[in-house]
Amino acid sequence: MIFIDACFRKKTPYTPVWMMRQAGRYLPEYMEVRNRAGDFLTLCKNPKMACEVTLQPVDILNVDAAILFSDILVVPLEMGMDLRFEKGEGPIFDHPLKNREDLKALKVEEAALRLDYVYEAIKLIREKLDRDKALIGFCGAPWTLATYMVEGRGTKTYSLVKKLLYTDPDFMHTLLRKVTEVLKLYLQKQIASGVNAVMIFDSWASALEESAYFEFSWKYMKEISSFLKKRNPEIPIILFPKGISGYLDKIDGDFDVFGVDWSTPIKLAKDKLFDKYVLQGNMEPMRLYNKDAIKEGVERIVEVMGKKEGHIFNLGHGILPDVPVENAKYFIDLVHEMTKR
Ligand code: CP3
Q: How far is CA 45 from the centre of its chain?
């Protein structure tokens, strides 16, 4: 698989490319299945439909990897929290974590078992996906999940979770440890079910100052990563901490690919990390609205990364729901064409 070879810096005929959130609302084919499912969580819990939408971007856009269709928040859901997705508002937990009793009630082993619909979807997808295409499994970082579990919803200020972090660090660490334990079991089961690579999304990384970031987030990402590496050295691990370009000097750990977000100059990431890690990224997703902007964006990244090993093309965050499919296709084709060896 070209994508897996690229994760290990092996020679490939071109730079592989996929897009974060590639299975989603910009595809009319996705909307058709989602409407059939009724709502988003039902779609996540239905292995057949999850399989169908996972394969759509591979068939329609010819990306080099499929990413499992699910959501990072099914983990807190199966730990026992009530999750709903509200139109226009995104995810909501009606009973966010408030005290130690709430913490105690969170399930660990049981949560990993209750996520069986994810493992079923993976088995189906791996059966149907072209042998040359990789299937990427994923989870949210403990810090990002904990943020949702404490705040109850997306936040701009992170005030509840950060107040907790500075007033009761022990509470935060207990929560993060519990989530970390579930994620180790969860990703190990995803691997056993057939995923070829795993990615950990730390979408709220930039909420933390440097010392807090390494104490409350990166440490746990690394712990999951070395747990998996010991057991499955052949499965590449991608870590994506969003918005921490100021902290790159301190990045370390046993993983393979560093996901570069759009706000980090790729040249900076290359200077700081390329010796140790393959880089993935990082075209600004908004460029997808305009073909000239796409061309310029791809050219600038190729200029820095070259047509050679050590790079996987991607966006620097997820594709947005109103991007024309034609432009997404243009992006993928252009990367394949421009990076041909
Ligand atoms: O194609 C893929 O990338 C695979 C599937 C995937 C989804 N969510 C599907 C989804 C993945 C990898 C995620 C990860 C995810 N979910 C993250 C981390 C990545 C990032 O974007 O930073 C986060 C923070 C979430 C939490 C989440 N899920 C939010 C904030 C929302 C609402 C977003 C919005 O714009 O409404 C979701 C819902 C969601 N997850 C959708 C999809 C396709 C849209 C749901 C719908 O169909 O209405």
A: 18
